[in-house]
């Protein structure tokens, strides 16, 4: 009996030992029990930022200057003052507050505009001294007028020259330069002319002559004039007339 009890006790002890070892293994945490499920790990990643904005489709502003106005076709003949019977319109003030007067010749179906020779713009870089312009090239008087319509006009002034018949100088040699809105190509001084060709005279008499043909826009234009060499003496108590050809 004792032996059976002993064997029984040993068998019970062995059984309890086997159960104890198996219980320890089942309590150990799974090696990945602390890891987040794959879906959870992906959700913790920062979402991809939005795509870079598309480049702007608006065109960069153009930096090129406005194109120069088209050069007109000038008459080939030497310009002499046209004869007109003017009817004066209502004077109007230009941007400088100087008055210009529109002109109309109904019989000839031609128009014009005039301004006093002393009413040049404060923007002028030159002025008259005893009827002459400065002796420095580039120093000009500027007149602002609005012609009744666009077209080619004679710029008619009055004056005389101080060089004799034995020493005539051309308009180019006199440095006569006329510009319209800063464009020399919008005026034609017919630079090969000498004073006799223009109707000027080497006397004490002032004569009307065409300084240049000018291409006016029908809007307010700025017409500049310079004459630094062999200068014309411009009569100061008359108007400058722009007469449609």
Q: How would you describe what is shown here?
A:
By secondary structure, the chain is of the alpha+beta class. The strands form two sheets. Strands 1, 2, 3, 4, 6, 8, 9, 11 and 12 form a nine-stranded antiparallel sheet that branches. β3 and β4 form a beta hairpin. It is globular. The termini are far apart. The N terminus is likely disordered.
Give a short synopsis of this structure:
The chain has 245 residues and is α+β, with helices and mostly antiparallel strands.
Count of helical stretches? 3
The proportion of residues in beta strands is 25-35%
Flag low-confidence runs.
1-61
Distance between the termini: 155 Å
Secondary-structure element sequence?
Answer: HHEEEEEEEEHEEEE
Structural class, from secondary structure content? alpha+beta
Outline, from the CA principal axes? globular
The average pLDDT score comes to 81
- Helicity, as a percent range: 10-25%
* Radius of gyration, in angstroms, nearest whole number: 49 Å
């Amino acid at each position: 009996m004792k032996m059976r009890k002993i064997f029984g006790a040993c068998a019970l002890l062995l059984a309890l030992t086997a159960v104890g070892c198996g219980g320890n293994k089942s309590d150990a945490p799974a090696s990945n029990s602390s890891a987040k499920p794959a879906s959870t790990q992906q959700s913790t990643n920062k979402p991809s930022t939005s795509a870079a904005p598309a480049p702007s489709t608006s065109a960069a502003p153009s930096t090129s200057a406005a194109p120069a106005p088209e050069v007109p076709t000038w008459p080939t003949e030497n310009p002499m003052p046209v004869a007109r019977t003017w009817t004066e319109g209502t004077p109007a003030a230009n941007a400088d507050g100087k008055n210009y007067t529109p002109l109309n010749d109904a019989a000839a179906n031609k128009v014009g505009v005039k301004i006093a020779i002393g009413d040049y713009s404060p923007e002028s870089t030159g002025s008259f001294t005893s009827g002459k312009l400065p002796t420095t090239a580039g120093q000009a008087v500027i007149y602002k007028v609005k012609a009744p319509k666009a077209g080619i006009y004679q710029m008619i002034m009055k004056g005389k020259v101080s060089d004799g018949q034995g020493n005539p100088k051309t308009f180019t040699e006199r440095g006569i330069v006329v510009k319209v809105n800063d464009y020399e190509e919008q005026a034609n001084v017919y630079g090969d002319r000498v004073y006799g060709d223009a109707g000027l005279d080497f006397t004490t008499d002032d004569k009307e002559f065409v300084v240049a043909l000018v291409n006016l826009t029908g809007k307010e234009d700025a017409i500049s004039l310079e004459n630094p060499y062999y200068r014309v003496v411009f009569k100061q108590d008359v108007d400058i007339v722009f007469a449609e050809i």
